[in-house]
Amino acid sequence: MATYAQQTDTLDSMLDLMRRLPPTRIEENVEALVNICPDYADDFLGSVDQPLKIQTDPLNGKEYLACDYNRDGESYRSPWSNEYDPPLEDGTFPSTKLRKLEIQANEAFDTYREMYYEGGVSSVFLWDLDDGGFAGVVLLKKVLKPQTSDGPTGSWDSIHVFEASERGRMAHYKLTSTVMLQMVAGKTSPKDANKESKNSNTPEWTKGANDNVDLSGSMTRQSELDAPVTDSSSHIVNTGRMVEDMEIKMRNLLQEVYFGKTKDVVFDLRSVESLEKARRQKELQKELVGFMKR
User: For residue 7, what are the contacts with CB-CB under 8 A and spacing of at least 6?
Assistant: First the structure.
């Protein structure tokens, strides 16, 4: 029987390994680790964020997002019909009061998704807490499908988990947001690859290679907020503001820091101008410095 310390070390090792494996194969890696250590499956799956899956509600045909927060066994609860697919008799459901708030939240964030993402899928799930408060998760997903055989592909997954506890006419919110981004650009089409392989000037070790640029990874941030509450719909306004502000901050961080750093590295490795032109500029600079010292 493994001790608590040994169990913690094993789980930490699994999570540490996930941080070092390619993010584009996270589902395969999770499945492999669960098969190796099945006793830690529940704790491990609850600690690893995976790309959201798009499901279709069989009762109304609407799409929703599936994740660990609306899963019970092998079934997933739809936010539109409040039913599990496949059907589950003893599934976990929110209270009647919280279910009404869940319906309003899904309508509000569906509008938010259309305004900011211009497509994609959104879902909101709420559940009751033992201390009298409640928690929830806001899910957003947008997939970029290739327009051509060599077009760019990508996906954006947002997972916003929050807790809300009322204190008189105020409520305290804790938000943990995770964004998973995957972008693949610059694919070499089979037609271009054949042309390249026939080129006698192309080195053997580069023939048939694809010029792919793969930018994938995840980012997690947290925030807290105290906000006034007049009725139950105030929770939607407050959490909506928190999610909106957090997504703007994370998008700006991705744009300025991660993409900006990648561009700097690429431009340092590859010279856009010819080497001959760069050499002449250096010689001209040396001549100007020489004239200034005279």
Answer: 40
Segments of the chain with pLDDT less than 50: 189-190, 193, 196-200, 202, 204-209
Nearest-CA neighbor of 173 among 218, 79, 236? 236
Q: With beta carbons less than 8 A apart as the criterion, state whether 229 and 168 touch.
A: no
Please name the residues in contact with 173: beta carbons below 8 A apart, sequence gap of 6 or more.
Answer: 162, 163, 164, 224, 225, 226, 227, 238, 239, 242
In the chain, the percentage of residues whose pLDDT exceeds 90 is 55
Q: Where are the alpha helices (DSSP H) in 118-202?
A: 190-198
Closest to 124 measured CA to CA, from 69, 61, 87, 83: 69
Q: What is the separation, in whole angstroms, between the first and last Cα of the chain? A: 83
CA distance 4 to 93: 32
| Helical ranges in the chain per DSSP H | 4-20, 26-36, 41-47, 96-117, 190-198, 233-253, 260-269, 275-293
pLDDT in tens, 50-97: 899 999 999 999 999 999 899 998 899 999 999 999 999 899 999 999
Is the torsion defined by CA of 219, 158, 243, 75 positive or negative?
Answer: negative
